Predict the 3D structure of the following.
Amino acid sequence: MPTSRTISFITRTIASIVCIVIAFAILTMLVSTKPQLEIVSGVRSLPAVIVMEAEQIPISRRTVGYGTADALQHADVPTQVSSTVTLVPPTTRVGYAVRKGDLLVELDDVDYRQQVVRAELSLSTAKSESTLLAVERSAAEERAELARRDQELSEAELQRITDAFNRGAAKQREIDIAMQKTIATTAASVNATESANRFPAKEEQASSNISTKQAELAIAQENLKRCKVLSPIDGVIQELDVRVGEHVNNGKRIARVVNSRNLEIPLRLPSYARPHVHLHDPVSLRSAGFGKRYWDAYVTRIAPEDDSSSRTMIVYVDVEQLPTSPTRIPPGLFVRGEVKSSQEDRLRWVVPRRSIRDDRVMIVRDGMLRSIPVSVDYSVTGELPAFGLPDQDWAVLETPLSSGDFVVVDPGGSLRDGMVVRSILASEVSLE
């Protein structure tokens, strides 16, 4: 029994020693293979900042505005008569292309056909009356001429009797009878002349009546034509407002036709941009919101007045395009336009928008941070490959910088004036 205990004790002791040796060997191996921390000293111990070298680049003034594209040719087609819709052709559907003069809607024309017939009959009656009036005038003028001759004969006879009376060859009664006859023929001549003189005025009235009847006939015929509502322009049907059997009143819109070949985009720009915007300045258009699309155009017109309520000015961009092009600008699209001044392309100091904090930028000069106040002239959107930064928003400064300065791209809250820092060029960071 004592021998077994001794053996067990020795076995446990040896096992413990082996475990300790193995653990020590593992510890020694871990210590010998551990990574050695690099001791940083000198310049690399300074805080690092990402910088870009300040330099002037040629850039034109850019002004951003917004507007809605509008088709120069569009028509809200109304009815010009009151009637009932009898036909809407299969080609009159929203989205279908139509040509000028194509039938859009046909209205009931029964009443207007009868109006044409009545106007034609009235015109025929007026022309007949004018013909009868011409015959009556001819007869009246002949009667007036006969009455004048009868008057002349009566006056001549009165003169002869008067001469005979003076010679004692006639009696007073004969003079009186001749005088009565002369008076009667004179009255008849006056009446006949008066009747004949009325006919020019009557003929003028008859002519005016004929012209009135002709105008009424023309209106009736035009109203009959208006029962067929035709497209006034080439384009595409945007809206259709009526159906068969529907009664429409004069002036009611029945369809809207839009031609998107020529567009007008009124861009609203800040009023202060007026001295910098000129005719034919290039404009970069972009659809606002999601699914951005891009177009190039130029300024064609400038409105002379500013809008005092919004403090904006309006420039017009006219765009000519193919209506069937998949990349066309659809009417009604809200767009963003960036106007580039073609007369102000010069060297300017440009920094990323994010480098400006509280109207100051931080620069590294001789390894030390300094903040300087700056004034922003205007902003620019887009990539500027000259700086090798992925930024899209840039600020063009009025305040000049110094060549050789390094601008801190993204100044953090821990950076202070006078700090000694280690500069890392942004272009090197981008390459890495």
Q: What stands out?
A: The mean pLDDT is 86. The longest strand covers residues 253-270.
